[in-house]
Write a structure and sequence with these properties.
This protein is mostly helical and 431 residues long. The chain has a single domain, classed as MFS general substrate transporter like domains (Growth Hormone, Chain: A, Up-down Bundle), CATH 1.20.1250.20. Strands 1-2 form a two-stranded antiparallel ribbon. The longest helix is centred in the middle third of the chain and has 31 residues. It is globular, with a radius of gyration of 21 Å.
Protein backbone atom coordinates (compact mmCIF):
# COMPACT_ATOMS: atom_id res chain seq x y z
CA UNK A 1 0.00 0.00 0.00
CA UNK A 2 1.32 3.40 -1.02
CA UNK A 3 2.33 5.59 1.92
CA UNK A 4 0.22 8.73 2.36
CA UNK A 5 2.00 11.98 1.57
CA UNK A 6 2.61 13.87 4.83
CA UNK A 7 4.10 17.33 5.14
CA UNK A 8 6.93 18.08 7.57
CA UNK A 9 6.71 21.03 9.98
CA UNK A 10 9.08 23.08 7.80
CA UNK A 11 7.15 22.22 4.62
CA UNK A 12 3.92 23.32 6.32
CA UNK A 13 5.52 26.60 7.38
CA UNK A 14 6.84 27.18 3.87
CA UNK A 15 3.40 26.51 2.40
CA UNK A 16 1.91 28.88 4.99
CA UNK A 17 3.53 31.83 3.24
CA UNK A 18 1.78 30.84 0.01
CA UNK A 19 -1.51 31.01 1.93
CA UNK A 20 -0.62 34.36 3.48
CA UNK A 21 0.58 36.26 0.41
CA UNK A 22 -2.15 34.83 -1.85
CA UNK A 23 -4.70 36.95 0.00
CA UNK A 24 -2.92 40.06 -1.25
CA UNK A 25 -2.82 38.80 -4.84
CA UNK A 26 -6.52 37.87 -4.81
CA UNK A 27 -7.43 41.29 -3.44
CA UNK A 28 -5.24 43.02 -6.04
CA UNK A 29 -6.65 40.85 -8.82
CA UNK A 30 -10.32 41.12 -7.91
CA UNK A 31 -11.30 44.10 -5.76
CA UNK A 32 -8.50 46.65 -6.17
CA UNK A 33 -9.03 47.25 -9.93
CA UNK A 34 -12.72 47.95 -9.28
CA UNK A 35 -11.84 50.40 -6.51
CA UNK A 36 -9.24 52.02 -8.75
CA UNK A 37 -11.89 52.30 -11.49
CA UNK A 38 -14.09 54.23 -9.05
CA UNK A 39 -11.18 56.61 -8.32
CA UNK A 40 -10.54 57.19 -12.03
CA UNK A 41 -14.26 57.71 -12.71
CA UNK A 42 -14.35 60.36 -9.99
CA UNK A 43 -11.40 62.07 -11.69
CA UNK A 44 -13.11 62.02 -15.10
CA UNK A 45 -10.81 59.46 -16.79
CA UNK A 46 -12.13 57.25 -19.63
CA UNK A 47 -12.30 53.43 -19.49
CA UNK A 48 -9.39 53.19 -21.92
CA UNK A 49 -7.29 55.51 -19.73
CA UNK A 50 -8.18 53.48 -16.63
CA UNK A 51 -7.15 50.24 -18.33
CA UNK A 52 -3.92 51.73 -19.67
CA UNK A 53 -2.83 53.37 -16.39
CA UNK A 54 -3.41 50.15 -14.46
CA UNK A 55 -1.34 48.23 -16.97
CA UNK A 56 1.45 50.80 -16.80
CA UNK A 57 1.53 50.71 -12.97
CA UNK A 58 1.68 46.91 -12.99
CA UNK A 59 4.52 47.03 -15.50
CA UNK A 60 6.51 49.59 -13.47
CA UNK A 61 6.23 47.44 -10.33
CA UNK A 62 7.41 44.30 -12.08
CA UNK A 63 10.22 46.09 -13.94
CA UNK A 64 11.59 47.42 -10.65
CA UNK A 65 11.67 43.91 -9.23
CA UNK A 66 13.15 42.55 -12.45
CA UNK A 67 15.98 45.06 -12.04
CA UNK A 68 16.78 44.30 -8.39
CA UNK A 69 15.78 40.62 -8.44
CA UNK A 70 19.07 39.05 -9.59
CA UNK A 71 21.06 41.09 -7.07
CA UNK A 72 18.66 40.15 -4.27
CA UNK A 73 18.91 36.51 -5.30
CA UNK A 74 22.70 36.61 -5.29
CA UNK A 75 22.80 38.29 -1.86
CA UNK A 76 20.33 35.70 -0.53
CA UNK A 77 22.82 32.87 -1.10
CA UNK A 78 25.29 34.39 1.38
CA UNK A 79 25.18 32.84 4.84
CA UNK A 80 22.68 34.61 7.10
CA UNK A 81 21.28 36.92 4.40
CA UNK A 82 18.20 35.08 3.09
CA UNK A 83 15.84 35.38 6.06
CA UNK A 84 16.55 39.06 6.92
CA UNK A 85 16.12 40.14 3.29
CA UNK A 86 12.94 38.09 3.01
CA UNK A 87 11.59 39.72 6.18
CA UNK A 88 12.41 43.20 4.87
CA UNK A 89 10.55 42.62 1.60
CA UNK A 90 7.56 41.11 3.38
CA UNK A 91 7.26 44.15 5.66
CA UNK A 92 7.50 46.51 2.67
CA UNK A 93 4.64 44.65 0.99
CA UNK A 94 2.54 44.42 4.16
CA UNK A 95 2.93 48.10 5.05
CA UNK A 96 2.20 49.10 1.45
CA UNK A 97 -0.95 46.97 1.47
CA UNK A 98 -2.14 48.53 4.73
CA UNK A 99 -1.39 52.05 3.41
CA UNK A 100 -3.54 51.63 0.26
CA UNK A 101 -6.59 52.58 2.29
CA UNK A 102 -5.08 56.01 3.00
CA UNK A 103 -4.92 56.95 -0.71
CA UNK A 104 -7.82 59.07 -1.95
CA UNK A 105 -6.66 59.98 -5.47
CA UNK A 106 -5.98 57.61 -8.35
CA UNK A 107 -2.36 58.75 -8.69
CA UNK A 108 -1.41 58.37 -5.00
CA UNK A 109 -3.16 55.00 -4.98
CA UNK A 110 -1.05 53.80 -7.92
CA UNK A 111 2.19 54.97 -6.25
CA UNK A 112 1.42 53.06 -3.03
CA UNK A 113 0.26 50.06 -5.08
CA UNK A 114 3.61 49.96 -6.89
CA UNK A 115 5.46 50.00 -3.53
CA UNK A 116 3.30 47.17 -2.14
CA UNK A 117 3.67 45.12 -5.33
CA UNK A 118 7.47 45.57 -5.29
CA UNK A 119 7.61 44.31 -1.69
CA UNK A 120 5.40 41.33 -2.51
CA UNK A 121 7.26 40.33 -5.69
CA UNK A 122 10.68 40.77 -4.07
CA UNK A 123 9.71 38.52 -1.16
CA UNK A 124 8.93 35.71 -3.63
CA UNK A 125 12.57 35.65 -4.81
CA UNK A 126 13.72 34.59 -1.35
CA UNK A 127 10.65 32.45 -0.70
CA UNK A 128 11.08 30.39 -3.88
CA UNK A 129 14.80 30.03 -3.14
CA UNK A 130 13.86 28.46 0.22
CA UNK A 131 12.06 25.57 -1.54
CA UNK A 132 15.15 23.34 -2.13
CA UNK A 133 16.01 23.76 1.58
CA UNK A 134 12.46 23.20 2.82
CA UNK A 135 12.11 19.80 1.08
CA UNK A 136 13.96 17.37 -1.21
CA UNK A 137 13.92 16.71 -4.96
CA UNK A 138 11.44 13.83 -4.77
CA UNK A 139 8.89 15.83 -2.77
CA UNK A 140 9.47 19.20 -4.46
CA UNK A 141 6.72 18.97 -7.11
CA UNK A 142 4.13 17.90 -4.54
CA UNK A 143 5.14 20.49 -1.94
CA UNK A 144 5.20 23.30 -4.52
CA UNK A 145 1.78 22.28 -5.89
CA UNK A 146 0.32 21.95 -2.38
CA UNK A 147 1.59 25.46 -1.63
CA UNK A 148 -0.26 26.90 -4.58
CA UNK A 149 -3.36 24.80 -3.86
CA UNK A 150 -3.68 25.84 -0.22
CA UNK A 151 -2.74 29.39 -1.20
CA UNK A 152 -5.73 29.53 -3.53
CA UNK A 153 -8.26 28.12 -1.09
CA UNK A 154 -6.72 29.84 1.96
CA UNK A 155 -6.84 33.26 0.34
CA UNK A 156 -10.60 32.84 -0.08
CA UNK A 157 -11.12 33.19 3.71
CA UNK A 158 -9.99 36.84 4.10
CA UNK A 159 -11.26 37.62 0.59
CA UNK A 160 -14.84 36.65 1.43
CA UNK A 161 -14.69 38.78 4.57
CA UNK A 162 -13.36 41.72 2.55
CA UNK A 163 -15.87 41.16 -0.25
CA UNK A 164 -18.87 41.13 2.13
CA UNK A 165 -17.50 44.23 3.84
CA UNK A 166 -17.13 46.16 0.56
CA UNK A 167 -20.35 45.01 -1.11
CA UNK A 168 -22.49 45.67 1.96
CA UNK A 169 -20.62 48.67 3.34
CA UNK A 170 -23.87 50.68 3.60
CA UNK A 171 -25.51 47.97 5.71
CA UNK A 172 -22.62 48.22 8.16
CA UNK A 173 -23.02 51.98 8.35
CA UNK A 174 -19.68 52.78 6.68
CA UNK A 175 -18.62 54.22 3.32
CA UNK A 176 -17.11 52.12 0.53
CA UNK A 177 -13.79 53.94 1.06
CA UNK A 178 -13.75 53.01 4.76
CA UNK A 179 -14.68 49.42 3.90
CA UNK A 180 -11.78 49.22 1.45
CA UNK A 181 -9.38 50.62 4.06
CA UNK A 182 -10.48 47.92 6.51
CA UNK A 183 -10.15 45.29 3.75
CA UNK A 184 -6.55 46.33 3.14
CA UNK A 185 -5.79 46.06 6.88
CA UNK A 186 -7.40 42.59 7.10
CA UNK A 187 -5.35 41.39 4.13
CA UNK A 188 -2.12 42.82 5.58
CA UNK A 189 -2.83 41.16 8.95
CA UNK A 190 -3.53 37.78 7.32
CA UNK A 191 -0.30 38.08 5.33
CA UNK A 192 1.79 38.73 8.47
CA UNK A 193 0.09 36.02 10.54
CA UNK A 194 0.79 33.26 7.99
CA UNK A 195 4.40 34.42 7.54
CA UNK A 196 5.42 34.05 11.19
CA UNK A 197 5.75 30.20 11.25
CA UNK A 198 8.19 30.29 8.32
CA UNK A 199 10.27 32.99 9.98
CA UNK A 200 10.37 30.86 13.13
CA UNK A 201 11.31 27.51 11.56
CA UNK A 202 13.39 28.32 8.50
CA UNK A 203 17.18 28.03 8.76
CA UNK A 204 19.49 28.61 5.82
CA UNK A 205 21.43 25.36 5.35
CA UNK A 206 22.74 25.85 1.80
CA UNK A 207 24.84 28.95 1.37
CA UNK A 208 27.95 30.65 0.09
CA UNK A 209 30.36 32.06 2.67
CA UNK A 210 30.08 35.86 2.80
CA UNK A 211 32.74 38.02 1.18
CA UNK A 212 34.37 41.12 2.61
CA UNK A 213 32.04 43.29 0.52
CA UNK A 214 28.93 41.16 -0.09
CA UNK A 215 26.92 43.75 -2.03
CA UNK A 216 29.75 44.59 -4.44
CA UNK A 217 30.78 40.95 -4.75
CA UNK A 218 27.18 39.98 -5.52
CA UNK A 219 27.60 41.62 -8.93
CA UNK A 220 30.68 39.48 -9.59
CA UNK A 221 28.83 36.33 -8.52
CA UNK A 222 25.87 37.32 -10.69
CA UNK A 223 28.23 37.52 -13.65
CA UNK A 224 29.55 34.05 -12.79
CA UNK A 225 25.99 32.71 -12.58
CA UNK A 226 25.12 34.23 -15.95
CA UNK A 227 28.17 32.46 -17.33
CA UNK A 228 26.92 29.16 -15.85
CA UNK A 229 23.52 29.70 -17.44
CA UNK A 230 25.16 30.35 -20.80
CA UNK A 231 27.14 27.12 -20.50
CA UNK A 232 24.13 25.10 -19.28
CA UNK A 233 21.98 25.44 -22.39
CA UNK A 234 19.04 23.53 -20.87
CA UNK A 235 18.77 26.10 -18.05
CA UNK A 236 19.14 29.02 -20.46
CA UNK A 237 16.42 27.74 -22.79
CA UNK A 238 14.15 26.92 -19.85
CA UNK A 239 14.43 30.45 -18.44
CA UNK A 240 13.80 31.90 -21.90
CA UNK A 241 10.76 29.66 -22.36
CA UNK A 242 9.53 30.60 -18.89
CA UNK A 243 9.80 34.28 -19.84
CA UNK A 244 7.36 33.84 -22.69
CA UNK A 245 4.75 31.44 -21.35
CA UNK A 246 4.58 32.90 -17.85
CA UNK A 247 4.08 36.34 -19.45
CA UNK A 248 0.67 35.24 -20.65
CA UNK A 249 -0.19 33.56 -17.34
CA UNK A 250 0.73 36.58 -15.20
CA UNK A 251 -1.02 39.02 -17.54
CA UNK A 252 -4.25 37.03 -17.41
CA UNK A 253 -4.04 36.86 -13.60
CA UNK A 254 -3.16 40.52 -13.00
CA UNK A 255 -5.51 42.09 -15.54
CA UNK A 256 -8.56 39.79 -15.56
CA UNK A 257 -10.81 42.08 -13.53
CA UNK A 258 -9.47 45.18 -15.25
CA UNK A 259 -10.21 43.58 -18.61
CA UNK A 260 -13.77 42.72 -17.61
CA UNK A 261 -14.34 46.20 -16.19
CA UNK A 262 -13.13 47.87 -19.38
CA UNK A 263 -15.63 45.79 -21.37
CA UNK A 264 -18.46 47.02 -19.15
CA UNK A 265 -19.16 43.70 -17.40
CA UNK A 266 -20.94 43.61 -14.03
CA UNK A 267 -18.51 44.19 -11.15
CA UNK A 268 -20.19 41.79 -8.72
CA UNK A 269 -20.26 39.08 -11.38
CA UNK A 270 -16.55 39.59 -12.03
CA UNK A 271 -15.70 39.27 -8.34
CA UNK A 272 -17.71 36.09 -7.93
CA UNK A 273 -16.14 34.62 -11.07
CA UNK A 274 -12.65 35.21 -9.72
CA UNK A 275 -13.69 33.62 -6.45
CA UNK A 276 -14.65 30.57 -8.53
CA UNK A 277 -11.14 30.64 -10.04
CA UNK A 278 -9.61 30.26 -6.57
CA UNK A 279 -11.98 27.44 -5.63
CA UNK A 280 -11.35 25.55 -8.89
CA UNK A 281 -7.58 26.13 -8.64
CA UNK A 282 -7.42 24.38 -5.25
CA UNK A 283 -8.27 20.79 -6.32
CA UNK A 284 -6.53 21.12 -9.68
CA UNK A 285 -3.28 22.29 -8.07
CA UNK A 286 -3.46 19.27 -5.75
CA UNK A 287 -4.17 17.10 -8.79
CA UNK A 288 -1.08 18.36 -10.63
CA UNK A 289 1.00 17.65 -7.53
CA UNK A 290 -0.29 14.07 -7.46
CA UNK A 291 0.15 13.66 -11.22
CA UNK A 292 3.80 14.73 -10.88
CA UNK A 293 4.47 11.47 -9.03
CA UNK A 294 3.21 9.48 -12.02
CA UNK A 295 3.97 11.70 -15.02
CA UNK A 296 7.01 13.70 -16.08
CA UNK A 297 7.01 17.31 -14.83
CA UNK A 298 8.00 18.55 -18.29
CA UNK A 299 4.96 16.86 -19.83
CA UNK A 300 2.63 18.50 -17.30
CA UNK A 301 4.09 21.93 -18.06
CA UNK A 302 3.57 21.35 -21.80
CA UNK A 303 -0.09 20.44 -21.22
CA UNK A 304 -0.61 23.62 -19.19
CA UNK A 305 0.99 25.86 -21.84
CA UNK A 306 -1.14 24.36 -24.62
CA UNK A 307 -4.31 24.82 -22.57
CA UNK A 308 -3.38 28.43 -21.81
CA UNK A 309 -2.90 29.02 -25.54
CA UNK A 310 -6.52 28.01 -26.07
CA UNK A 311 -7.62 30.16 -23.12
CA UNK A 312 -5.97 33.28 -24.59
CA UNK A 313 -7.73 32.72 -27.94
CA UNK A 314 -11.05 32.37 -26.12
CA UNK A 315 -10.39 35.54 -24.06
CA UNK A 316 -9.85 37.53 -27.24
CA UNK A 317 -13.51 37.01 -28.16
CA UNK A 318 -14.91 37.70 -24.69
CA UNK A 319 -17.98 39.96 -24.64
CA UNK A 320 -20.39 38.55 -22.04
CA UNK A 321 -20.29 37.79 -18.33
CA UNK A 322 -20.99 34.05 -18.83
CA UNK A 323 -17.87 33.91 -21.03
CA UNK A 324 -15.86 35.50 -18.22
CA UNK A 325 -17.17 32.86 -15.83
CA UNK A 326 -16.11 30.09 -18.20
CA UNK A 327 -12.72 31.79 -18.55
CA UNK A 328 -12.40 31.89 -14.76
CA UNK A 329 -13.00 28.13 -14.51
CA UNK A 330 -10.51 27.33 -17.28
CA UNK A 331 -7.81 29.56 -15.76
CA UNK A 332 -8.38 27.96 -12.35
CA UNK A 333 -7.82 24.48 -13.82
CA UNK A 334 -4.29 25.22 -15.06
CA UNK A 335 -3.07 28.30 -13.17
CA UNK A 336 -1.71 26.51 -10.11
CA UNK A 337 -0.33 23.62 -12.15
CA UNK A 338 1.82 25.70 -14.48
CA UNK A 339 3.14 27.91 -11.65
CA UNK A 340 3.90 25.06 -9.26
CA UNK A 341 5.51 22.81 -11.86
CA UNK A 342 7.61 25.68 -13.25
CA UNK A 343 8.94 26.50 -9.79
CA UNK A 344 9.83 22.91 -8.90
CA UNK A 345 11.23 22.16 -12.39
CA UNK A 346 13.90 24.84 -11.93
CA UNK A 347 14.53 23.74 -8.34
CA UNK A 348 15.45 20.26 -9.60
CA UNK A 349 17.88 21.33 -12.34
CA UNK A 350 19.99 23.83 -10.33
CA UNK A 351 22.53 23.37 -7.47
CA UNK A 352 20.82 24.11 -4.08
CA UNK A 353 23.68 26.26 -2.76
CA UNK A 354 23.06 28.67 -5.64
CA UNK A 355 19.26 28.57 -5.45
CA UNK A 356 18.97 32.27 -4.68
CA UNK A 357 20.99 33.24 -7.74
CA UNK A 358 19.03 31.02 -10.13
CA UNK A 359 15.64 31.87 -8.68
CA UNK A 360 16.68 35.52 -8.93
CA UNK A 361 17.27 34.96 -12.64
CA UNK A 362 13.94 33.14 -12.87
CA UNK A 363 12.35 36.11 -11.19
CA UNK A 364 13.84 38.55 -13.70
CA UNK A 365 12.35 36.41 -16.45
CA UNK A 366 9.00 36.22 -14.70
CA UNK A 367 8.84 39.85 -13.70
CA UNK A 368 10.23 41.05 -17.00
CA UNK A 369 7.51 39.04 -18.68
CA UNK A 370 4.90 40.28 -16.23
CA UNK A 371 5.87 43.82 -17.15
CA UNK A 372 5.84 43.14 -20.87
CA UNK A 373 2.39 41.55 -20.97
CA UNK A 374 0.37 44.35 -19.32
CA UNK A 375 2.45 46.95 -21.16
CA UNK A 376 1.68 45.24 -24.48
CA UNK A 377 -2.03 45.09 -23.73
CA UNK A 378 -1.98 48.70 -22.53
CA UNK A 379 -0.12 49.85 -25.67
CA UNK A 380 -2.52 48.12 -28.06
CA UNK A 381 -5.50 49.50 -26.12
CA UNK A 382 -4.10 53.03 -26.17
CA UNK A 383 -3.28 52.89 -29.89
CA UNK A 384 -6.76 51.64 -30.72
CA UNK A 385 -8.52 54.17 -28.48
CA UNK A 386 -12.27 53.86 -28.98
CA UNK A 387 -11.92 52.29 -32.46
CA UNK A 388 -12.98 48.72 -33.23
CA UNK A 389 -11.95 46.13 -35.84
CA UNK A 390 -13.93 43.20 -37.23
CA UNK A 391 -12.41 39.69 -36.88
CA UNK A 392 -14.42 36.63 -37.96
CA UNK A 393 -17.50 38.80 -38.08
CA UNK A 394 -17.01 40.08 -34.51
CA UNK A 395 -16.27 43.70 -33.58
CA UNK A 396 -13.21 43.73 -31.33
CA UNK A 397 -12.01 46.60 -29.16
CA UNK A 398 -8.40 47.41 -28.37
CA UNK A 399 -8.61 45.40 -25.14
CA UNK A 400 -9.67 42.30 -27.07
CA UNK A 401 -6.81 42.66 -29.55
CA UNK A 402 -4.28 43.23 -26.76
CA UNK A 403 -5.30 40.00 -25.06
CA UNK A 404 -5.11 38.21 -28.41
CA UNK A 405 -1.38 38.93 -28.60
CA UNK A 406 -0.87 36.63 -25.58
CA UNK A 407 -1.47 33.62 -27.84
CA UNK A 408 1.79 34.24 -29.66
CA UNK A 409 3.70 34.36 -26.38
CA UNK A 410 2.36 30.97 -25.33
CA UNK A 411 3.30 29.44 -28.69
CA UNK A 412 6.88 30.75 -28.46
CA UNK A 413 7.14 29.59 -24.85
CA UNK A 414 5.96 26.10 -25.76
CA UNK A 415 8.49 25.69 -28.56
CA UNK A 416 11.39 26.86 -26.38
CA UNK A 417 10.33 24.70 -23.44
CA UNK A 418 10.19 21.59 -25.62
CA UNK A 419 13.80 22.25 -26.64
CA UNK A 420 14.91 22.87 -23.04
CA UNK A 421 13.19 19.74 -21.73
CA UNK A 422 14.76 17.62 -24.48
CA UNK A 423 18.23 18.89 -23.57
CA UNK A 424 17.62 18.30 -19.86
CA UNK A 425 16.54 14.70 -20.46
CA UNK A 426 19.62 14.12 -22.63
CA UNK A 427 21.79 15.53 -19.83
CA UNK A 428 20.24 13.22 -17.23
CA UNK A 429 20.77 10.23 -19.50
CA UNK A 430 24.51 10.93 -19.62
CA UNK A 431 24.85 11.28 -15.83
Amino acid sequence: MKEKFKLTALEKSWIGYDIGNSAFILLVTAIVPIYFNALTDAAGLTESQYFSYWGIATSIATLLVAFIGPICGTLADYKGFKKPLFTLCVMLGVLGCAALGAAHSWLSFLVIFVIAKVGFNSSLIFYDAMLPEATDDKRMDNVSATGYALGYIGSVIPFIVCLVLVLFAGSFGISTGTAMAIAFLITAGWWVLLTLPLLKRYRQVSFVEPEAHPFVDSFRRLGTTLGKVKQEKHIFLYLLAFFFFIDGVYTIISMATTYGQSLGLDSTGLLLALLVTQIVAFPFSILFGRLSAKYDTGLLIKVCILCYTGISVFAMFLFHLWQFWLLAVLVGMFQGGVQAMSRSYLGKIIPPENSGEFFGLMDICGKGADAMGPALVAMVTSLMGERTVTVFGMRLQGQNLGVGFLTLLFVIGYILFCKADKLNKARLTKV
